[in-house]
Specification:
Elements (H helix, E strand, L loop, with lengths): L8 E6 L13 H20 L2 E12 L8 E11 L3 E11 L6 E14 L16 H21 L2
Antiparallel strand pairs: 1-3, 2-5, 3-4, 4-5
């Protein structure tokens, strides 16, 4: 079984008042929701399966995004096991005044493929080719191994 697509997925949304806190910056939970959505879509595009989130790891909020900014969220599949995929998701804030872009958050989203009965199902396998892809693969594999070791405790 071959992957259907390994192209990244990008979502762009504007930050409105209802998306912000008292400091007029984007709620972390709202950003997390957008990132989770990008992860689910990129995994579905990759495998032509339905996915649900099983773990989010190494989520780092680096800078705030402000009301009126655009948020660009990009997800890419970087690791697979028999039934799971890991998407590396990065978010940037873009100012509409000068279109500058700054990274505001990055994380690793582990998703599991499911059938209509919510049972895990097999997925195509991702094969990293470039040095960057191999590096991302090893990071995701290490995160997964740590996650599994903690589950057994």
């Amino acid at each position: 079984m071959e992957p259907f697509s390994n192209e990244p997925v990008t979502l762009i949304e504007e930050i409105f008042p209802q998306d912000t806190n008292a400091y007029n910056t984007l709620f972390g939970g709202r950003l997390l929701s957008l990132m989770d959505k990008a992860a689910g879509i990129v995994c579905a595009k990759f495998a032509h399966r339905e996915f649900v989130t099983i773990s989010i790891d190494t989520l780092e909020f680096k800078a705030p995004a402000k009301q009126g900014d655009l948020v660009e969220v990009t997800g890419k599949v970087i690791f697979t096991s028999s039934r799971t995929a890991c998407a590396k998701v990065t978010a940037w804030a873009m100012s509409k005044s000068d279109w500058t872009k700054k990274e505001i958050c990055k994380g690793y989203f582990f998703m599991i493929a499911i059938d209509s009965m919510m049972r895990p199902i097999p997925i195509p396998q991702y094969n990293p080719e470039t040095e960057e892809e191999k590096h991302d693969w090893s990071i995701a594999k290490e995160i997964r191994e740590h996650m599994l070791s903690q589950k057994d405790k």
